[in-house]
Write a structure and sequence with these properties.
Strand 8 and strand 9 form a beta hairpin. 31% of the residues lie in helices and 39% in strands. It is an alpha+beta fold.
Length: 143
């Protein structure tokens, strides 16, 4: 089971884990990306994520398929939130189920890295000083 979805509601880790749970898998790896309160020395008050939903879901689905082939992943789910978020909010949740921990963690990193690099999702940071700046898509050195 593979699922990639753009969401406009809070991402709940328990729900993601339950979705991939299987007695045949000895490893479940979870990644939650959260909004930081600072970026490159600037205080962040919030982030606004926007995306081309259909294209982002299609690309994330391809990434999940690639992870399945490359790492033998049995099940994986990715949710990426769009809209306005504040520091501490979860912006992306990825969970991978596999028979063994090493490939589960390798697949998890692959999915997160490829999503950040390939999915048409944009991030507008809102700074405490009132300014705003688009971040990512080659505009930031933060990884």
């Amino acid at each position: 089971m593979m699922r990639a979805t753009m969401v406009r509601h809070p991402i709940l880790s328990d729900s993601l884990i339950a979705e991939v749970a299987s007695e045949s898998c000895g490893a479940t790896a979870l990644f939650l990306g959260t909004v930081r309160s600072s970026n490159e020395g600037r205080e962040v008050g919030g982030i606004e994520y926007s995306a081309y939903d259909e294209m982002a879901e299609r690309e994330m689905g391809l990434i999940l398929e690639e992870a399945g082939t490359k790492f033998g992943v049995e099940a994986a789910v990715i949710e990426h939130r769009v809209g306005e978020l504040v520091p501490g909010d979860v912006s992306i949740g990825v969970v991978v189920a596999h028979h063994h921990r090493a490939p589960a963690m390798d697949a998890l990193r692959y999915i997160v890295d490829e999503t950040k690099a390939r999915a048409p999702i944009w991030k507008l940071e809102h700074y405490a000083d009132g300014s705003r700046e688009w971040v990512g898509a080659g505009t930031s050195s933060v990884t």
